[in-house]
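thought: user wants a sequence for this fold. calling inverse folding tool.
action: design(structure=
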């Protein structure tokens, strides 16, 4: 597929409303829980994007019926009669780390052999912690290339239950995968984890969704949960909330253009950790106003630098980095070493692309130090590195710096297929610089 190049037009004082797509994280989890349920489910306002479509297609290979209704903005799931149909072909998951990790837990709840694989980049993304945890629960696995990485063959006769400790310091998805699968075990599951858990709010999101569906669990310690099993997931009639991660680019646009953007539908009680970016932007010089159906972000003073541990909201690092590049002073982003095993090595890539703008940036093993207020037009096109969050974050920087072209702009399809249409609303609502 040929790369798409997007030329970004500078803008000042944007003032618009953006309707957000459904949450990618919630859609993934809802699809899996629906496939595990004891009847037909309907998910409303699902995100239909590359990653969630990969999860849906995998569930179809495993025997579930999945029907998308674009007009009604729903997806219907009928679980298979047997858990699971053994696919004739490998389950191919592109570069969706979420699909890979969560589906490893899901396949372990059934019987059969399942081969999961993906793109060359996905084969570089670690899965060893979830494999070791499944192995401790009686699941056989075999990595076909490098140990601890896809492609991997799972051979299961179902989860027997028991006590397991998982290392989720690289990804909370290892822990979420086990938690989602645990009610389907033959006996009680006790799931413990090592600290710190990367992106722990995503674990809280998983538990909140399980609780909403009536799944019973108990906290044994701050680092251990007991899940009664077997329990059945009920059929879902589930409304997916809007995606805070997708909203972040429009919040940043308000900050960089001295403008105002209203994003909806969102509520202040959202369990999505990335909503915490609003607090950070407030510290940097923005006014945050929650309204009936969404949130309004308005830049009210010069942007200030920030020193922040972002372990719990790592996906917000590219967004915050481009804002920090335009803030006065030195910003320090800390404790996000796990960003190196995302769709790209995001610490290295963010530093590389910021340098094209003449931004002094230091790449650390677990973070970035950015000297703000020194941007100039880039001397080369900005590469997305096939990473949706890089493409979207640097598009936002292009609103305040002339001459930005995003090469590989199609990468946004991974999580926000309509991003460029929504982004165009920013330019229409403003004056060119």
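)
observation: tool returned 433 residues.
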């Amino acid at each position: 597929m040929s790369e798409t190049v997007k030329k970004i037009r500078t803008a000042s004082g944007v003032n618009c409303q953006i309707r957000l797509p459904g949450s990618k994280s919630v859609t993934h989890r809802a699809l899996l829980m629906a496939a595990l349920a004891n009847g037909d489910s309907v998910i409303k306002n699902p995100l239909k994007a590359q990653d969630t479509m990969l999860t849906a297609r995998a569930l179809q290979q495993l025997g579930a019926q999945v029907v998308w209704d674009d007009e009604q903005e729903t997806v219907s799931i009928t679980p298979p009669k047997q858990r699971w149909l053994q696919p004739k072909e490998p389950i191919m998951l592109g570069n969706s780390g979420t699909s890979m990790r969560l589906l490893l837990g899901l396949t372990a709840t059934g019987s059969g052999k399942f081969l999961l694989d993906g793109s060359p980049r996905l084969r570089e993304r670690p899965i060893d912690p979830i494999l070791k945890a499944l192995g401790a629960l009686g699941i056989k696995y075999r990595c076909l290339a490098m140990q601890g990485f896809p492609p991997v063959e799972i051979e299961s006769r179902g989860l027997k239950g028991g006590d397991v400790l998982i290392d989720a310091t690289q990804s909370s998805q290892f822990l979420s995968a086990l938690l989602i699968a645990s009610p389907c075990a033959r006996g009680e599951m006790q799931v413990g984890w090592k600290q710190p858990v990367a992106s722990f709010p995503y674990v809280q999101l998983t538990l909140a969704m399980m609780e909403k569906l009536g799944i019973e669990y108990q906290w044994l310690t701050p680092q251990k949960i007991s899940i009664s099993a077997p329990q059945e997931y009920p059929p879902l009639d589930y409304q997916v909330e809007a995606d805070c991660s997708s909203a972040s680019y429009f919040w940043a646009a308000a900050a960089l253009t001295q403008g105002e953007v209203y994003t909806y539908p969102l509520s202040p009680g959202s369990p999505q950790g990335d909503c915490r970016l609003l607090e950070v932007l407030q510290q940097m010089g923005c006014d945050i106003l929650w309204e009936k159906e969404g949130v309004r972000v308005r830049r009210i003073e010069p942007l200030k630098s920030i020193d922040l541990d972002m372990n719990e909201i790592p996906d917000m690092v590219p967004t915050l980095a481009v804002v920090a590049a335009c803030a006065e002073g030195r910003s320090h982003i800390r404790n996000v070493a796990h960003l190196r095993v995302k769709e790209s090595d995001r610490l290295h890539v963010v530093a590389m692309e910021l340098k094209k703008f003449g931004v002094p940036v230091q790449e650390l093993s677990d973070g970035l130090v950015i000297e703000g207020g020194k941007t100039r037009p880039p001397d080369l096109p900005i590469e997305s590195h096939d990473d949706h969050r890089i493409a979207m974050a640097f598009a936002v920087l292009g609103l305040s710096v002339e001459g930005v072209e995003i090469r590989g702009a199609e990468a946004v399809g991974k999580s926000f297929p309509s991003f460029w249409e929504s982004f165009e609303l920013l330019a229409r609502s403003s004056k060119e610089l």
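thought: summarizing for user.
answer: Here is the designed sequence. Residues 244-257 form the longest helix (14 residues).
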